[in-house]
Structure formats: structure tokens, C-alpha cells
Amino acid sequence: MEASDAAEGSPRERILAVTAELLAEGGREAVSTRAVGSAAGVQAPTIYRLFGDKQGLLDAVAGAGFAAYLESKAGLEPSDDPVQDLRVGWDLHIGFALANPALYLVMYGEPRVGGEPAAAVAGMEVLAGHIHRIAEAGRLRVSEELAVQLVHAGGRGTAASLIGMAAGRRDLGLSALAREAVIAAIASEVPAVATPGPVSAAVALRAVLTETAALTELERGLLREWLDRISGGR
Length: 234
Known about the structure:
Blueprint: H1 11-26, H2 33-40, H3 44-51, H4 54-72, H5 82-99, H6 101-108, H7 118-136, H8 144-164, H9 173-186, H10 198-207, H11 217-231
Helix pairs in contact: 1-2, 1-4, 3-4, 4-6, 4-7, 5-6, 5-7, 5-8, 5-9, 7-8, 8-9, 10-11
């Protein structure tokens, strides 16, 4: 790419556009301050001033790319089946990974001691929304936090495995099997209570409260009082 190809836009916009192209064409190794500066027509100090370092630049590109992806899916309306919507979300996640492998690996390729990049955090928030809807429907087998972590780990591992396969050997059946295994672990086919909602959930939990060993007798008594109060609000 020549500098003239990225002549339009602000320095930040040119740098992001150039970096995205270099990343897509050659992966993380192709992104260097020299290559980006030459193609974008800027000096290295400009890159450092705007993005801090190479990782900051890559994170900014990943954030912009993922934001564009989320915007393209903004018109998708949730259905009456939140578990099916989770399936759709999983498939879209894998599709994004395979269409943008280098970008995906910047987002999810290696754990960050200081936390995930903003693009990955945005993805987790979308996932948490899917999981919360399953919980509201009374179909979640585990806590919302654990469900989010399980789906995230399963999707991330599946995407990385598929990216690492030669295109001719890539079998998307792997993704479908992994997806269904994760969903079976976190969600039930039918609601745990006949009529999903706080009242029915409170009644169901009140009925089995004595079976838990996680609470002291005092804590069970307090929770029993709260559940009675909720279920009394029919």
C-alpha cells in the first residue's frame, strides 16, 4: 500500500485504516510502526501520541472493527426463544472470527493480565445479555456469571481451533457440536418453573430451600422470608 492510498481522513483515521489492511493481509507481524507510518503518511511520534504503543494501536483497530460488526447486526430482533438466539449469536461469533482471523486473534488470541481489550469487553456484554434472557425465561441451569464464562471459553476455543485449521480441512460441524455441548451444560429445554418470572421462581426455590447446604440456618431463614414476600406478591 502506498501513502497516497490513505491520503484522506484525519491522521487517526488513516492510521487505523492502514493498520487494519496490514493486519488482514499479513497478521500481527505485518504491523510495524515503520510500515504503518509509511503507508499512512505520518511519523512514528504521531502514532505513539495517538495510540501509545503497537498494542494500543492493535486494540484500537480491533475495537473499530468489532464496533462495525456489532453495528451491522444491530437490526437483528430477539426471538421468543432465548436459547435459539444464543445459538445464532454463537454462529455469528464464529463467522466473525473466520472472516477476520487476524483481528479476532488480537481480541482473543492471548490472555491479558491487565484485562481484555475494549472490543472483547463489548463482546462479553452482548453475550451477558443473551444469558440474562435465558435466566429470565427460567431455563438457566447455572449462575449467569458461570454461564457467560462457559460460553465465552467454548466459543473462544472453538474459533481459535478453526482459525488454526487449513481452510480445506475446516469442518464447521466442530462448532455446532461444541455449541450444543455448552448449551446443554447451561440451559434446559423447558423452564424450571411453569410460568417464568420472579413469583414462580421464588415458589420453586422456596420448595427446595432445605436441600441446600451452602447456607447457614440463619441465612436460610432470612432467604425463606424474602421468598415468601416475593411469592406473596402474586
